[in-house]
């Protein structure tokens, strides 16, 4: 076989910029999907990660506690656990606290994993917005309490992540016991940031989870913009700005997901005159208002929240994303082979246009025809 190393890496650069594997599956009927679907799919793409980060997110896996926040917290000291539990007790009524069941794997030196089911104390909430109240306290733990990190804090969902290959992380958290109507998964090949337990994907805030392949070169600008709204970017990963940006746009500013995607992966200025006058004016206004949230660099992301899963690439599609459907299920993946491994018979397969979101919701499976018709790429556009 021909050696293509010199063609792919002619300068002997040891940085691999196109690594990372991502996968997502959603059953839009709400039916639960066993974890092995996500585990097998992401493990097939093992050559895309280097063992410095793997993780999974699942929705619908805590039906007995569906109305409570499920806090997944990692600790590296007993003092950190005591301080965090004392702090959480000031704002939440904790109905259940338990050590997360873990199994022996190749994962080395894991933190202590603890899970809490809790509801907000009404005397603490007063007139404040509940979601913002929970987000603020999550950020406080992650930035102000030593040796502790909240890596999941949504309702009826859970994130499971760490340093290791995704298959090893799945065995560590014993994911074979769980099922959910949405699963996302990530195999990490960190390029500009260290591999550490909190920096593994998925990254989560409230019910948002994000898995990401690529590099957000606009991280500094995005970070400064978000800090104006009280977000603290301190986790040594560019992925956190994606989660915070969507939380700001969709939850706090009530912008539809379809529009939020046009802010994050905004069309080129040169494309605006090719659109209708009204559409061009709207997109120009969004660009001027939220210019600090335009994300440059090569990226593909899978974003999930309660009842919804979204796939999005950068404007010129420098990272791969394959979309497929079978019945009520939608699949998103770095590689088509991973989808066909877990679902050989597919109804529809396509590669979305750069900057065009693919959105699956409960009761709705997107199609290739729908995706392409929504794009309406004007003649002469990039």
Question: Averaging pLDDT over every residue, what do you get?
Answer: 88
If strands are numbered along the chain, what order do they take across the biggest sheet? 8-3-10-1-16-15-17
CATH class of the domain at 14-61 and 156-255 and 297-375: Alpha Beta
* N- to C-terminal distance: 36 Å
- Give, in order, the helices and strands: HEEHEEHEEHHEEHEEEEHHHHEEEEHEEH
Unreliable residue stretches: 1-11, 376-382
> Which fold name fills CATH's third level, the topology of the domain at 14-61 and 156-255 and 297-375?
Glutamine Phosphoribosylpyrophosphate, subunit 1, domain 1
Proportion of strand residues: 25-35%
Q: Tell me, what's the shape?
A: globular
